[in-house]
Design a protein that fits this description.
The chain has helices at about 25-35, 40-45, 60-70, 90-105, 115-120, 135-145, 165-170, 185-200, 205-215, 220-240, 245-255; strands spanning about 1-5, 5-10, 50-55, 75-80, 110-115, 150-160, 175-180. By secondary structure, it is α/β, with parallel strands linked by helices. Strand 4, helix 4 and strand 5 form a beta-alpha-beta unit. The chain binds adenosine-5'-triphosphate.
C-alpha cells in the first residue's frame, strides 16, 4: 500500500471467493467484467460507471472493493473523502479534481471511495457555514461521474443512506446500488469456512459443526465472525490444544454483535 494524504494505492490480495454471501453483487461484478475490457470499448459498449454499496460496518463492502480490483486485474485507488477538505479557499475542490485526475491517469482503474457520506454530506466541515465547499466538491464529483470518458470504475461504500446526497442516488450516477445485509445462516457458515480455510483449519471441522456455529452466530457481521475465529485461535493456543468447535462457540457467546442493538436487522 502506498499512501499520500487522501489517496492510497493498493495491491489487494483478496478475491471474490474470499467473500461469503453477497451473491448478487458477486455475479453482477462477474457479468460486468467483460464490459470493462478494451475489446468491449472498441465494440462500443458503455463502460460501467460504478456501484454504491450500502450497509452496516463489517459486512464486506471494503472487501468487495478490493476483490473486484483483483478479479478485474486493475489498479485500485482508495479515496478518503474526509481528508480532501481543508487548506486555503478552493483547496478542497482542487484536491478532489487532482484525485479524479490521478484515477484517470491510471485508467483502466478502480476508484474506491470509502464512507462516501462523510465527504459529501457536509459532516466533515462546518455544514451550512462552509461557504458552499461541500456542495462544490459534490458538484465536481457528480459531474465527473456523469461525464468521465476514461474507464474508471467507482466503488463507493457507505454506512448511512440517510446521509447521502439525493443527487448521488439518482439514476445515471452509478449503475447499481447494492444493500449489503447481515449474512443469513448459510452465508455465516460460508464466512466461517472462509476464515478457517485461511488459517488452514477448515479440514478439522465437520459440516454439522460448521452448521452449529452458523446457527449460534445469528446477527453477526462478517467482521464479527472473523473476529470470533481469531479469538478462538488465541483460546486454543492458551489452552494448548488444536482449534475446535467449542473454542469458536465460546468466542461467539462472548461477543455482543453490533446488530443486537438493532433487532429489526436480523433475518433468520
Ligand atoms: P466498513 O463499513 O466498516 O468499512 P465493511 O463492510 O467495508 O465495513 P470490511 O472492511 O470489508 O467491511 O470487513 C472487515 C473484514 O471482515 C474483512 O476484511 C473480512 O476479513 C471480514 N468480512 C466481512 N464481511 C465478510 C464476508 N462477507 N465474507 C468474508 N469475510 C468478511
Amino acid at each position: 500500500i502506498r499512501k499520500s494524504g487522501h489517496l492510497e494505492y493498493f495491491h489487494p490480495k483478496a478475491t471474490l471467493d474470499d467473500i461469503g454471501g453477497l451473491d448478487n453483487l458477486k455475479s453482477w461484478l462477474n457479468r460486468r467484467r467483460q464490459s470493462f475490457t478494451q475489446d468491449a470499448r472498441d465494440f462500443g459498449l458503455e463502460t460501467p460507471r460504478g456501484v454504491l454499496l450500502l450497509g452496516l460496518p463489517g459486512t464486506g463492502k471494503s472487501l468487495a472493493a478490493k476483490a473486484v480490483a483483483n478479479a478485474w486485474q486493475l489498479p485500485l485507488l482508495r479515496l478518503d473523502m474526509g481528508k480532501i477538505y481543508g487548506g486555503i479557499v478552493g483547496q478542497s475542490e482542487a484536491n478532489i479534481r487532482s484525485a479524479l485526475q490521478t484515477a484517470e491517469a491510471l485508467a483502466p482503474s478502480i476508484l474506491w471511495i470509502d464512507e462516501i457520506e462523510k465527504g459529501l454530506s457536509g459532516m466533515q466541515s462546518s455544514g451550512a457555514t462552509d461557504g458552499g465547499t461541500t456542495s462544490r466538491v459534490l458538484g465536481t464529483f457528480l459531474t465527473w461521474m456523469q461525464e468521465k470518458e476514461k474507464p474508471v470504475f467507482v466503488v463507493a461504500t457507505a454506512n448511512h443512506i440517510a446521509q447521502l446526497p439525493p443527487e448521488l442516488l439518482r439514476k445515471g450516477r452509478v449503475d447499481e446500488i447494492f444493500f449489503v445485509d447481515l449474512p443469513v445462516q448459510q452465508e455465516r457458515q460460508d464466512i466461517i469456512s472462509i476464515h478457517l480455510k485461511r488459517r488452514n483449519r477448515l479440514d478439522d471441522f465437520s459440516s454439522s459443526e460448521l452448521n452449529e456455529l452458523a446457527v449460534a452466530s445469528k446477527g453477526f457481521t462478517g467482521a464479527e465472525l472473523e473476529e470470533a475465529v481469531k479469538e478462538a485461535m488465541f483460546l486454543a493456543f492458551d489452552e494448548g490444544h488444536q482449534l475446535n468447535k467449542n473454542d469458536i462457540l465460546k468466542s461467539i457467546q462472548a461477543t455482543s454483535p453490533l446488530s443486537s442493538t438493532m433487532a429489526e436487522m436480523i433475518q433468520d
